[in-house]
Amino acid sequence: MNNLIVICQSGGKFSTASDGSLSYVGGDAHAISVSRETKFDELRLEIADMWKYGTDSMTIKYFLPNNKRTLITISSDKDVQRFLDFHGNSGTVDVFVIKNESSTALAAVTPSTTEATPVPPRKRSTRKRVIQQEYPLNVTPVAQAPAPAFLASASASENAGRFNSLATVPTEIQSGGQMKRVKLWENCITGLHQQFNNVREVRDAFRKYSIAQGFTIKFKKNDSMRVSAKCSVDGCPWRIFASRLSTTHLFRIKRLNEIHTCGAGTSTDSHPRASKKVVEGIVKEKLRDSPNVKPKEIANQIQQEFGIELRYSQVRRWMEAATEEIQGSYKEAYNQLPWLCEKIVETNPGTAVSLNTREDLSFHRLFIAFHASLHGFQSGCRPLLFLDTMSLQSKYQSELLTAAAVDGNYGIFPVAFAIVDVVNDDNWHWFLVQLKTALPTFQPITFVADRQMGLRQSISVVFENSYHAYCLRYLSEELKRDLKGPCIHEIIGVIVGHLYDAAYAPTLDAFRKCIESIKSISPEAYDWILQSDPENWANSLFHGARYNHITSGIAESFYSWLTELAALPIIKIIETIRHKLMELIYTRKVESDQWLTRLTPSVEDKLQKEILKAQSLQVMFSPSNTFEVQDFLGAVNVVNIDAWDCSCREWQLNGFPCLHAVAVLQHIGRDVYDYCSKYYTTEAFRLTYSESIKPVPTVDKPVLGESSEVQVNPSPLRRVSGSPKKRRIRSRGVVKRPLHCSRCKGEGHNKVSCNVVS
Fold first, then answer.
1. Is CATH 3.60.15.10 what the domain over 4-99 is classified as, yes or no?
2. Rg value, the chain, Cα
């Protein structure tokens, strides 16, 4: 995008047309250039220098495209980027620089004016019917006159869902307390004909405006069709009325009397209080912007921005309520699972879905394997699956079981997942049965998984003629736990390093050398390794094909973002995973369309390195298909090109020719690419991502709470981490200190129970 020409205008004023649109008249104008690299501080400094304003004494605003009613404030780097996003295709755009009036300037009125319009003392009201009830929160006083109606921040209906419709006024230092006070919400009410999306926005705007202006309001009418409010001080004429437009959900302000006789907004000692609903709204807004924010962080932000002091328990309680309102009910979401399963199968034919509940209808387990994932695994992925598990962020017991493959470019390819109430052998066996049903293949599959999962028997029973490779990461953790001795912790890292070397060793001799090194360090570790079924984790002893992958955590790179999210209802968890899968498949499909090589880029790079190293090797000619290859050190390896075999075993382990095989193939004039596994070809990669996951419409989604029939109840609540608090129990041998009476000096009683008459 080229630089945007920005016309900065100041010194004029806005006028409001009959249709509510704003126009700017008069003032001075300057032109500047703004680019993607422009920061807010740079922009503000340059604009302030034009009119010699203080950087903290002005507000920068602009109109949204084709909208002359909505003024948006620029107050951060993100706001600058949004401004450019909206007007990037325009040649020029206007911004309006508004000078803020300070509280001291407002106080400098002439005596004659003061005498002409005396302000009566503010009366105390019983406020029995005040909807905005005072909540025991300490709020920083706001001393400011009502802002002019033309400084509108937004018509909520025309800015919904994209920007906060409140204009943020810059911070300033009050001379009285010398503390920063953010003046927000002055422009929630912009005048007659202002529109709102719904009745909730109307109520919220009324409450926020009253706090910003330093008064409390009383709702006279407050229903789904009309909302009217007045200043709660008896005798004050301030009034406002808004009602719904016919045949729509929109609300519009119909009547407004902006005159206060109670001193609202001008009294320097007024202490407006925020209602519980308003503060809950602040918490909700912050939670929507930062879902992973902590209660203490929100409390600190509200204290700094609004001067409101909150207890941790208050914020945590409101956060739980706000999260449920934003994300939906955690409990009711379980009852929507049957509908979601039906919709997934309907929109994605060929998808495998299985939902189980317990006898009490509580959630037990849910298996999902999308057709696009099943097709991709069978069409283009190696017969290699990684099984793993992780805990989900939820208030109910929820664990995620995953089965993932690796595509031809060494990228993670999720095949199936399940949400279960607990990780145990029964749920893993059920998961494998569902996976077998979804993958009716007779080809042997290698499973890489933790040996402690209880999967060994299940894999051999459910997937006959398949293989179970132990995950070395979990194996090394077991080794660390089981080793004992005062010096073990100092050398455990060395032992684990040799363990990994032994697992990767391609030949039996290399494996023996590695474990002999462990034996010289710790005979106990050596014995442990020999008893850990090395035929299930060592390359030199493993009978299946795992393509040199020795850990099962490959799926973590795809599912790790789940732990970074805030707690979500189970419906949202499934939908979020589906969206990620849709994005993954689409992105890689588009990416592969640009490839020009026969092999995927990662394998092409590896093969080219082998070709480069093969130039220094010497091939012994043979009339058969078996050749001897000698390196520059004199070591000899035997290559059989018909069996795709080399004595170094790298060709068999990796699936593409090693440097010895490359030397032979080039020597006899064969094409090296013909001897690479089909799973590494660009064609196979494109087949892997040839099917897409279809969206799931929510038009007929059941409304939470309306369904009286319970189909699925939540699983049990997740136990709070940490040990429960225990009461201190005195040891039996400890004798309590005997009571002494301060009156009679006797033992066994105190002054209260003393019978001695004074």
1. no
2. 36
